[in-house]
Specification:
CATH architecture of the largest domain: 3-Layer(aba) Sandwich
Number of domains: 2
Number of helices: 10
Order of helices and strands: HEEEHEEEHHHHEHEHEEHH
CATH topology of the largest domain: Rossmann fold
Structural class: alpha/beta
Largest sheet: 6 strands, mixed
Strand content: 15-25%
Radius of gyration: 19 Å
Strand order of the largest sheet: 6-7-8-3-9-10
Number of strands: 10
Distance between the termini: 39 Å
CATH class of the largest domain: Alpha Beta
CATH superfamily of the largest domain: P-loop containing nucleotide triphosphate hydrolases
Helix content: 25-40%
Length: about 280
């Protein structure tokens, strides 16, 4: 079995001592009112440290996207709290960006790819128009789209559209990037390329990332930690470190003994919940 993706000790270094950028305490969320209310999130409790890449996985329908929307300040909480860099989240906070699964709807079709990225900078006030344009072009180059600045989203492939969406999220000077199954709609080859791109951009821009995904292989491949969620009403039932060195490799990392062990553990937990009695 290949061993190019070296094993390292569980996180006791940079990520372990970094400050918590996101703190989730006893978060609960119900949809609806009174006796008809559906309790989606029961008691979610975890932190994300600055510079980490954390994956959220769980059974289908457990409330992963609902949880992410609560973290982004887009859904009000029923109980508990979310804080971002120490401040309570009671609406979309500056410094948090979201990349949605349905990138075709999140991009503005009447704006060019470059203008879509510039749109992400509309709240950046300490930079003039020329600097913003330079920054937007740099970000499009970083996602491999230098030759597509003047194209519109509907003129490029789905994978390219998602690259534009990621560049726009980075353009907002986000400190925390929330990713809601952003690669679910692209083909397998593009998905692998995008996973590596996300890791590269996270390292280059020192980005903290929280990824919701139904793909366990993807969750383990990109993450420093994998949070396993229970069935609805969801809570975190396991917090699993992924002690594999970065940069990662689509062949060697996925063949590594530690990767396979973590993948097995996560799949076993999810399967057990699927077959357990309510």
């Amino acid at each position: 079995m290949a061993s190019g993706a070296a094993f390292v000790a569980p996180p006791t270094g940079a990520h372990a001592v970094a400050p918590a950028i996101l703190a989730v305490r006893h978060l609960a969320k119900s949809i609806g009112d009174g006796s008809a209310a559906l309790k989606v999130i029961g008691d979610a409790d975890f932190i994300v440290r600055e510079g980490e890449f954390v994956s959220l996985v769980g059974p289908s329908g457990c409330g992963k996207t609902t949880l992410l929307m609560c973290l982004a300040g887009l859904f009000p909480l029923s109980a508990g709290s979310v804080s971002f860099v120490g401040a309570p989240v009671d609406g979309p906070p500056p410094g948090v960006a979201v990349v949605f699964q349905d990138y075709s709807r999140s991009l503005l079709p009447w704006k060019s790819n470059l203008d879509n990225v510039l749109f992400g900078m509309r709240r950046v006030e300490d930079t003039d128009a020329r600097q913003k344009r330079e920054r937007a072009r740099e970000l499009l180059a970083s996602v491999g789209l230098s030759d597509f600045e003047r194209h519109y989203p509907w003129q490029v492939s789905g994978g390219m559209q998602q690259r534009v969406a990621i560049a726009r999220a980075l353009a907002s000077r986000s400190r925390l990037l929330l990713l809601d199954e952003p690669l679910a709609a692209v083909d397998a080859q593009t998905r692998a390329e995008m996973q590596d791109l996300l890791l590269e951009l996270a390292a280059r821009y020192r980005q903290t990332c929280l990824l919701v995904t139904h793909d366990v292989d993807e969750a383990v491949y990109v993450a420093d930690r994998v949070l396993v969620l229970s069935r609805r009403p969801t809570r975190v039932i396991e917090d699993i470190p992924v002690p594999l060195a970065k940069p990662r490799d689509q062949i060697e990392t996925r063949e590594h003994r530690v990767y396979l062990e973590i993948r097995h553990t996560v799949l076993t937990r999810i399967r057990a919940m699927k077959h357990a009695s309510p």
